[in-house]
Amino acid sequence: MKILVAVKRAIDYNVKARPKSDGSAVDLANVKMSMNPFDEIAVEEAIRIQEAGGATETIAVSVGPKQCQETLRTAMAMGVDRGILVETEIETQPLAVAKLLAAVIKQESPGLVILGKQAIDDDSNQTGQMLAALLGWSQGTFAAKVTIEGERLKVAREIDGGIQTVSLKMPAVVTADLRLNEPRYVKLPNIMKAKKKPLDTLTPEGLGIDITPRLTVVKVAEPPARKGGVKVADVEALIDKLRNEAKVI
Question: Is pTM beyond 0.85 here?
Answer without folding.
Answer: yes
